[in-house]
Amino acid sequence: MNGFTPSLEKLIDQFARLPSVGRKSAQRLAFHMLDMSDKQAAEFTETILNARASIHRCEICCNLTDGEICNICNSPERDKSVICVVGDPRDVIAIEKTHEYNGLYHVLHGLISPMNDINPEDICIKELVIRLGDDTVKEVIMATDPTVEGEATSMYISKLIKPLGVSVSRLAYGVPVGADLEYADEFTLIRAIEGRKEM
Amino acid sequence: MNGFTPSLEKLIDQFARLPSVGRKSAQRLAFHMLDMSDKQAAEFTETILNARASIHRCEICCNLTDGEICNICNSPERDKSVICVVGDPRDVIAIEKTHEYNGLYHVLHGLISPMNDINPEDICIKELVIRLGDDTVKEVIMATDPTVEGEATSMYISKLIKPLGVSVSRLAYGVPVGADLEYADEFTLIRAIEGRKEM
After folding, report:
1. B83: CATH
2. Nearest C-alpha of chain B: how many angstroms from A159?
Protein backbone atom coordinates (compact mmCIF):
# COMPACT_ATOMS: atom_id res chain seq x y z
CA MET A 1 0.00 0.00 0.00
CA ASN A 2 1.50 3.33 -1.06
CA GLY A 3 -0.85 5.75 0.62
CA PHE A 4 -4.17 6.32 2.28
CA THR A 5 -7.48 5.00 1.00
CA PRO A 6 -8.50 6.84 -2.25
CA SER A 7 -11.13 9.23 -0.79
CA LEU A 8 -8.68 10.25 1.91
CA GLU A 9 -5.85 10.81 -0.61
CA LYS A 10 -8.25 12.96 -2.64
CA LEU A 11 -9.15 14.96 0.45
CA ILE A 12 -5.48 15.48 1.34
CA ASP A 13 -4.81 16.58 -2.27
CA GLN A 14 -7.55 19.20 -2.01
CA PHE A 15 -5.99 20.69 1.11
CA ALA A 16 -2.45 20.45 -0.28
CA ARG A 17 -3.54 22.74 -3.14
CA LEU A 18 -4.38 25.57 -0.73
CA PRO A 19 -1.81 28.36 -0.37
CA SER A 20 0.92 27.80 2.27
CA VAL A 21 -0.36 24.31 3.08
CA GLY A 22 2.30 21.58 2.75
CA ARG A 23 1.71 17.85 2.53
CA LYS A 24 1.90 17.24 6.31
CA SER A 25 -0.45 20.12 7.11
CA ALA A 26 -2.82 18.88 4.41
CA GLN A 27 -2.87 15.47 6.10
CA ARG A 28 -3.56 17.04 9.48
CA LEU A 29 -6.39 19.14 8.03
CA ALA A 30 -7.88 16.15 6.19
CA PHE A 31 -7.89 14.05 9.37
CA HIS A 32 -9.44 16.96 11.22
CA MET A 33 -12.24 17.01 8.61
CA LEU A 34 -12.91 13.31 9.26
CA ASP A 35 -12.92 13.86 13.02
CA MET A 36 -15.48 16.70 12.87
CA SER A 37 -19.09 16.08 13.84
CA ASP A 38 -21.59 15.98 10.95
CA LYS A 39 -22.90 19.35 12.10
CA GLN A 40 -19.44 20.96 12.08
CA ALA A 41 -18.62 19.53 8.65
CA ALA A 42 -21.89 20.73 7.16
CA GLU A 43 -21.31 24.16 8.70
CA PHE A 44 -17.79 24.30 7.27
CA THR A 45 -18.78 23.45 3.70
CA GLU A 46 -21.95 25.57 3.81
CA THR A 47 -20.02 28.58 5.09
CA ILE A 48 -17.69 28.32 2.09
CA LEU A 49 -20.53 28.05 -0.42
CA ASN A 50 -22.63 30.76 1.30
CA ALA A 51 -19.70 33.16 1.43
CA ARG A 52 -19.00 32.58 -2.25
CA ALA A 53 -22.65 33.15 -3.11
CA SER A 54 -23.19 36.29 -1.02
CA ILE A 55 -19.87 38.14 -1.16
CA HIS A 56 -19.27 40.45 -4.09
CA ARG A 57 -17.70 43.82 -4.81
CA CYS A 58 -19.25 47.04 -3.52
CA GLU A 59 -20.73 48.92 -6.49
CA ILE A 60 -18.90 52.06 -5.44
CA CYS A 61 -15.51 51.18 -3.91
CA CYS A 62 -15.04 47.54 -5.06
CA ASN A 63 -14.41 46.37 -1.47
CA LEU A 64 -15.94 42.99 -0.63
CA THR A 65 -19.42 43.18 0.86
CA ASP A 66 -22.58 41.15 1.47
CA GLY A 67 -24.86 44.04 0.46
CA GLU A 68 -24.91 46.05 -2.74
CA ILE A 69 -22.97 48.90 -1.19
CA CYS A 70 -20.46 48.37 1.61
CA ASN A 71 -20.82 49.71 5.16
CA ILE A 72 -18.13 52.33 4.65
CA CYS A 73 -19.59 53.79 1.45
CA ASN A 74 -23.03 53.66 3.10
CA SER A 75 -21.99 55.41 6.31
CA PRO A 76 -23.15 59.04 6.67
CA GLU A 77 -20.28 59.63 9.13
CA ARG A 78 -17.46 59.06 6.66
CA ASP A 79 -15.76 61.97 4.92
CA LYS A 80 -16.77 61.59 1.27
CA SER A 81 -14.16 64.07 0.03
CA VAL A 82 -11.18 61.69 0.53
CA ILE A 83 -10.55 58.31 -1.09
CA CYS A 84 -7.76 56.02 0.06
CA VAL A 85 -6.70 53.64 -2.75
CA VAL A 86 -5.48 50.17 -1.70
CA GLY A 87 -4.60 46.99 -3.56
CA ASP A 88 -6.45 44.44 -1.45
CA PRO A 89 -9.49 44.28 0.89
CA ARG A 90 -7.11 43.26 3.71
CA ASP A 91 -5.40 46.64 3.42
CA VAL A 92 -8.73 48.34 4.24
CA ILE A 93 -8.88 46.41 7.52
CA ALA A 94 -5.26 47.33 8.31
CA ILE A 95 -5.99 51.05 7.86
CA GLU A 96 -9.35 50.85 9.66
CA LYS A 97 -7.56 49.42 12.70
CA THR A 98 -5.67 52.71 13.11
CA HIS A 99 -9.01 54.49 13.85
CA GLU A 100 -7.35 57.60 12.37
CA TYR A 101 -8.76 57.63 8.85
CA ASN A 102 -12.36 58.65 8.30
CA GLY A 103 -12.59 58.89 4.51
CA LEU A 104 -13.67 56.36 1.90
CA TYR A 105 -11.65 53.62 0.19
CA HIS A 106 -11.14 52.23 -3.26
CA VAL A 107 -9.96 48.62 -3.60
CA LEU A 108 -8.04 47.87 -6.80
CA HIS A 109 -8.02 44.06 -6.38
CA GLY A 110 -4.46 43.78 -7.58
CA LEU A 111 -1.44 45.86 -8.52
CA ILE A 112 -0.07 46.52 -12.01
CA SER A 113 2.61 43.91 -12.71
CA PRO A 114 3.62 43.42 -16.35
CA MET A 115 5.84 40.49 -15.30
CA ASN A 116 2.73 38.65 -14.07
CA ASP A 117 0.65 39.91 -16.97
CA ILE A 118 -1.48 42.17 -14.74
CA ASN A 119 -2.23 45.34 -16.71
CA PRO A 120 -4.12 48.51 -15.71
CA GLU A 121 -7.33 47.20 -17.26
CA ASP A 122 -7.16 44.07 -15.07
CA ILE A 123 -7.58 45.99 -11.81
CA CYS A 124 -10.36 48.36 -10.67
CA ILE A 125 -8.89 51.62 -11.95
CA LYS A 126 -11.81 52.40 -14.29
CA GLU A 127 -14.19 52.33 -11.29
CA LEU A 128 -11.98 54.84 -9.47
CA VAL A 129 -11.98 57.26 -12.41
CA ILE A 130 -15.80 57.07 -12.56
CA ARG A 131 -15.96 58.04 -8.86
CA LEU A 132 -13.99 61.19 -9.58
CA GLY A 133 -16.57 62.28 -12.18
CA ASP A 134 -18.32 64.84 -9.93
CA ASP A 135 -16.74 67.36 -7.54
CA THR A 136 -17.30 65.45 -4.26
CA VAL A 137 -13.80 63.97 -4.03
CA LYS A 138 -11.05 66.48 -3.29
CA GLU A 139 -8.16 64.18 -2.36
CA VAL A 140 -6.95 60.71 -3.29
CA ILE A 141 -4.41 59.02 -0.98
CA MET A 142 -2.43 56.27 -2.70
CA ALA A 143 -1.86 53.49 -0.14
CA THR A 144 -0.74 50.64 -2.36
CA ASP A 145 1.99 48.29 -1.05
CA PRO A 146 5.46 49.90 -0.79
CA THR A 147 6.79 47.51 -3.47
CA VAL A 148 7.81 47.92 -7.10
CA GLU A 149 4.30 46.92 -8.22
CA GLY A 150 2.63 49.18 -5.65
CA GLU A 151 4.84 52.08 -6.69
CA ALA A 152 4.15 51.54 -10.41
CA THR A 153 0.40 51.33 -9.76
CA SER A 154 0.49 54.55 -7.71
CA MET A 155 2.43 56.38 -10.40
CA TYR A 156 0.08 55.17 -13.14
CA ILE A 157 -3.08 56.17 -11.28
CA SER A 158 -1.62 59.49 -10.16
CA LYS A 159 -0.82 60.50 -13.76
CA LEU A 160 -4.27 59.39 -14.85
CA ILE A 161 -6.35 61.25 -12.25
CA LYS A 162 -4.33 64.43 -11.60
CA PRO A 163 -5.78 66.09 -14.75
CA LEU A 164 -9.25 65.59 -13.19
CA GLY A 165 -8.37 68.33 -10.69
CA VAL A 166 -8.04 66.10 -7.62
CA SER A 167 -5.18 66.32 -5.12
CA VAL A 168 -3.15 63.09 -5.07
CA SER A 169 -0.88 62.06 -2.18
CA ARG A 170 1.11 58.95 -1.25
CA LEU A 171 1.63 57.26 2.16
CA ALA A 172 4.91 58.52 3.67
CA TYR A 173 7.91 56.24 3.41
CA GLY A 174 10.17 55.97 6.44
CA VAL A 175 11.42 53.77 9.24
CA PRO A 176 8.65 51.70 10.86
CA VAL A 177 7.75 52.88 14.37
CA GLY A 178 9.20 50.65 17.09
CA ALA A 179 11.74 48.94 14.83
CA ASP A 180 15.52 48.88 15.21
CA LEU A 181 17.18 51.40 12.91
CA GLU A 182 20.07 49.01 12.24
CA TYR A 183 17.70 46.51 10.65
CA ALA A 184 16.14 49.03 8.27
CA ASP A 185 17.18 48.42 4.64
CA GLU A 186 19.05 51.08 2.65
CA PHE A 187 16.09 52.07 0.48
CA THR A 188 13.86 52.65 3.49
CA LEU A 189 16.58 54.74 5.17
CA ILE A 190 17.17 56.79 2.01
CA ARG A 191 13.42 57.51 1.82
CA ALA A 192 13.34 58.34 5.57
CA ILE A 193 16.22 60.80 5.20
CA GLU A 194 14.68 62.37 2.08
CA GLY A 195 11.34 62.77 3.84
CA ARG A 196 12.77 64.16 7.12
CA LYS A 197 10.60 66.68 8.98
CA GLU A 198 11.75 69.74 10.83
CA MET A 199 11.42 69.35 14.60
CA MET B 1 -15.76 49.19 10.36
CA ASN B 2 -14.06 46.65 12.59
CA GLY B 3 -13.60 43.77 10.18
CA PHE B 4 -14.61 42.17 6.93
CA THR B 5 -18.19 41.80 5.74
CA PRO B 6 -20.12 39.24 7.91
CA SER B 7 -20.01 36.22 5.52
CA LEU B 8 -16.29 36.72 5.05
CA GLU B 9 -15.68 36.99 8.81
CA LYS B 10 -17.66 33.78 9.26
CA LEU B 11 -15.56 32.07 6.58
CA ILE B 12 -12.32 33.25 8.21
CA ASP B 13 -13.60 31.99 11.59
CA GLN B 14 -14.23 28.55 10.10
CA PHE B 15 -10.65 28.32 8.84
CA ALA B 16 -9.20 29.78 12.05
CA ARG B 17 -10.75 26.85 13.94
CA LEU B 18 -8.68 24.33 11.98
CA PRO B 19 -5.56 22.93 13.68
CA SER B 20 -2.35 24.96 13.19
CA VAL B 21 -4.17 27.69 11.28
CA GLY B 22 -3.69 31.16 12.74
CA ARG B 23 -5.75 34.24 12.00
CA LYS B 24 -3.56 35.43 9.11
CA SER B 25 -3.49 32.00 7.45
CA ALA B 26 -7.25 31.73 7.92
CA GLN B 27 -7.64 35.05 6.09
CA ARG B 28 -5.42 33.85 3.26
CA LEU B 29 -7.36 30.59 2.96
CA ALA B 30 -10.72 32.38 3.06
CA PHE B 31 -9.65 34.75 0.28
CA HIS B 32 -8.40 31.77 -1.69
CA MET B 33 -11.87 30.18 -1.36
CA LEU B 34 -13.45 33.34 -2.81
CA ASP B 35 -10.95 33.40 -5.68
CA MET B 36 -11.62 29.76 -6.69
CA SER B 37 -13.73 28.96 -9.73
CA ASP B 38 -17.21 27.58 -9.02
CA LYS B 39 -16.01 24.18 -10.19
CA GLN B 40 -13.02 24.17 -7.84
CA ALA B 41 -15.13 25.30 -4.88
CA ALA B 42 -17.76 22.63 -5.53
CA GLU B 43 -15.02 20.02 -5.85
CA PHE B 44 -13.44 21.14 -2.59
CA THR B 45 -16.63 20.96 -0.54
CA GLU B 46 -17.84 17.77 -2.22
CA THR B 47 -14.52 16.04 -1.60
CA ILE B 48 -14.86 16.81 2.11
CA LEU B 49 -18.42 15.50 2.31
CA ASN B 50 -17.70 12.46 0.10
CA ALA B 51 -14.64 11.52 2.13
CA ARG B 52 -16.64 11.77 5.35
CA ALA B 53 -19.41 9.64 3.87
CA SER B 54 -17.24 6.90 2.40
CA ILE B 55 -14.30 6.58 4.80
CA HIS B 56 -14.77 4.32 7.80
CA ARG B 57 -12.78 1.83 9.84
CA CYS B 58 -11.73 -1.53 8.39
CA GLU B 59 -13.78 -4.25 10.11
CA ILE B 60 -10.60 -6.17 10.88
CA CYS B 61 -7.74 -3.76 11.62
CA CYS B 62 -9.61 -0.46 12.23
CA ASN B 63 -7.47 1.36 9.63
CA LEU B 64 -9.37 3.92 7.53
CA THR B 65 -10.74 2.53 4.27
CA ASP B 66 -13.33 3.13 1.57
CA GLY B 67 -14.32 -0.53 1.42
CA GLU B 68 -15.48 -2.85 4.21
CA ILE B 69 -12.06 -4.39 4.62
CA CYS B 70 -8.87 -2.46 3.88
CA ASN B 71 -6.40 -3.31 1.10
CA ILE B 72 -3.82 -4.63 3.53
CA CYS B 73 -6.17 -7.03 5.37
CA ASN B 74 -7.54 -8.09 1.97
CA SER B 75 -4.16 -8.76 0.37
CA PRO B 76 -3.23 -12.47 -0.03
CA GLU B 77 0.44 -11.44 -0.13
CA ARG B 78 0.62 -10.13 3.43
CA ASP B 79 1.90 -12.29 6.27
CA LYS B 80 -1.16 -12.89 8.42
CA SER B 81 0.88 -14.21 11.36
CA VAL B 82 2.20 -10.77 12.39
CA ILE B 83 0.24 -7.72 13.50
CA CYS B 84 1.87 -4.33 13.92
CA VAL B 85 -0.09 -2.17 16.38
CA VAL B 86 -0.04 1.60 15.76
CA GLY B 87 -1.87 4.56 17.27
CA ASP B 88 -2.89 6.38 14.11
CA PRO B 89 -3.60 5.63 10.40
CA ARG B 90 -0.70 7.95 9.46
CA ASP B 91 1.67 5.58 11.27
CA VAL B 92 0.62 2.78 8.89
CA ILE B 93 1.71 4.90 5.93
CA ALA B 94 5.02 5.71 7.63
CA ILE B 95 5.79 1.99 8.13
CA GLU B 96 4.52 1.02 4.66
CA LYS B 97 7.00 3.47 3.16
CA THR B 98 9.91 1.38 4.47
CA HIS B 99 8.82 -1.53 2.19
CA GLU B 100 10.34 -3.79 4.88
CA TYR B 101 7.26 -4.92 6.76
CA ASN B 102 4.89 -7.41 5.17
CA GLY B 103 2.53 -8.26 8.00
CA LEU B 104 -0.83 -6.82 8.99
CA TYR B 105 -1.64 -3.78 11.11
CA HIS B 106 -3.95 -2.82 13.90
CA VAL B 107 -4.84 0.86 14.31
CA LEU B 108 -5.78 1.88 17.86
CA HIS B 109 -7.06 5.37 16.97
CA GLY B 110 -5.48 6.92 20.01
CA LEU B 111 -3.12 6.16 22.89
CA ILE B 112 -4.01 5.63 26.53
CA SER B 113 -3.67 8.98 28.28
CA PRO B 114 -5.34 9.34 31.68
CA MET B 115 -4.40 13.04 31.72
CA ASN B 116 -6.55 13.58 28.62
CA ASP B 117 -9.20 11.15 29.86
CA ILE B 118 -8.40 8.57 27.17
CA ASN B 119 -8.80 5.14 28.74
CA PRO B 120 -8.18 1.64 27.32
CA GLU B 121 -11.86 1.27 26.41
CA ASP B 122 -11.71 4.47 24.31
CA ILE B 123 -9.24 3.05 21.78
CA CYS B 124 -9.48 -0.06 19.56
CA ILE B 125 -7.90 -2.59 21.97
CA LYS B 126 -11.00 -4.82 22.16
CA GLU B 127 -10.85 -5.31 18.37
CA LEU B 128 -7.20 -6.39 18.66
CA VAL B 129 -7.97 -8.98 21.34
CA ILE B 130 -10.75 -10.42 19.13
CA ARG B 131 -8.23 -10.84 16.26
CA LEU B 132 -6.02 -12.94 18.52
CA GLY B 133 -8.90 -15.37 19.16
CA ASP B 134 -7.66 -18.04 16.73
CA ASP B 135 -4.11 -19.31 16.21
CA THR B 136 -3.29 -17.38 13.00
CA VAL B 137 -1.40 -14.57 14.70
CA LYS B 138 1.96 -15.60 16.18
CA GLU B 139 3.49 -12.20 16.85
CA VAL B 140 2.32 -8.71 17.75
CA ILE B 141 4.74 -5.82 17.20
CA MET B 142 3.92 -2.78 19.30
CA ALA B 143 4.68 0.30 17.21
CA THR B 144 2.95 3.03 19.17
CA ASP B 145 4.62 6.46 19.37
CA PRO B 146 7.83 6.45 21.46
CA THR B 147 6.23 8.78 24.00
CA VAL B 148 4.93 8.32 27.53
CA GLU B 149 1.43 7.61 26.21
CA GLY B 150 2.72 5.24 23.52
CA GLU B 151 4.84 3.39 26.05
CA ALA B 152 1.95 3.11 28.52
CA THR B 153 -0.35 1.83 25.78
CA SER B 154 2.25 -0.75 24.70
CA MET B 155 2.73 -1.98 28.26
CA TYR B 156 -1.00 -2.22 28.84
CA ILE B 157 -1.67 -4.17 25.64
CA SER B 158 1.38 -6.39 26.16
CA LYS B 159 0.18 -7.46 29.61
CA LEU B 160 -3.30 -8.04 28.24
CA ILE B 161 -2.41 -10.21 25.24
CA LYS B 162 0.67 -12.15 26.41
CA PRO B 163 -1.54 -14.68 28.27
CA LEU B 164 -3.18 -15.45 24.88
CA GLY B 165 0.06 -17.19 23.88
CA VAL B 166 1.21 -14.62 21.34
CA SER B 167 4.76 -13.29 21.16
CA VAL B 168 4.81 -9.54 21.81
CA SER B 169 7.66 -7.26 20.74
CA ARG B 170 8.26 -3.53 20.74
CA LEU B 171 9.95 -1.36 18.11
CA ALA B 172 13.60 -0.89 19.08
CA TYR B 173 14.68 2.52 20.21
CA GLY B 174 16.05 3.38 16.83
CA VAL B 175 13.09 5.75 16.77
CA PRO B 176 13.95 9.08 18.36
CA VAL B 177 12.39 9.33 21.82
CA GLY B 178 9.73 11.99 22.26
CA ALA B 179 8.94 12.44 18.58
CA ASP B 180 5.88 11.57 16.53
CA LEU B 181 6.20 8.23 14.73
CA GLU B 182 4.85 9.62 11.48
CA TYR B 183 7.85 11.95 11.19
CA ALA B 184 10.49 9.22 11.55
CA ASP B 185 12.57 8.59 8.42
CA GLU B 186 12.50 5.20 6.64
CA PHE B 187 15.97 4.08 7.77
CA THR B 188 15.25 4.76 11.41
CA LEU B 189 12.03 2.81 11.05
CA ILE B 190 13.81 -0.12 9.34
CA ARG B 191 16.35 -0.30 12.22
CA ALA B 192 13.54 -0.14 14.69
CA ILE B 193 11.70 -3.05 13.05
CA GLU B 194 14.89 -5.17 12.81
CA GLY B 195 15.89 -4.51 16.41
CA ARG B 196 12.51 -5.16 18.02
CA LYS B 197 12.78 -6.73 21.52
CA GLU B 198 10.56 -9.31 23.15
CA MET B 199 8.50 -7.78 25.93
Report:
1. 3.40.1360.10
2. 30
Partner-chain contact B8 A51, CB within 8 Å: yes
Please, is B166 exposed, middle or buried when counting C-beta atoms within 10 Å of its C-beta (0-12, 13-18, 19+)?
Answer: middle
Domain assignment of residue B169, given as a range:
75-198
- Rounded Cα distance between B199 and B190, Å, is 19
- Rg of chain B in Å (alpha carbons): 21
Number of domains in chain B: 2
How far is the alpha carbon of A104 from chain B, nearest alpha carbon, in Å? 11
Per-residue pLDDT tens over the stretch B3-49 = 789 999 999 999 999 998 999 999 999 999 999 999 999 999 999 99
ipTM above 0.85, yes or no: no
CATH number at residue B32: 1.10.8.420
HEC per residue, A155-194 = HHHHHHHHHHCCEEEECCCCCCCCCCHHHCCHHHHHHHHH
Full-model pTM:
0.80
| Together in a domain, B179 and B129 | yes
Partner-chain residue, chosen from A1, A36, A50, that has the shortest CB–CB distance to B96: A1
B7–A44 CB contact, under 8 Å: no
Residues B191 and B121 in one domain: yes
Q: Is A162 on the interface with B (CB under 8 A)?
A: no
Residue A77 to chain B, least CA–CA distance (Å): 11
- Is B45 within 8 Å of A45 when comparing Cβ atoms? yes
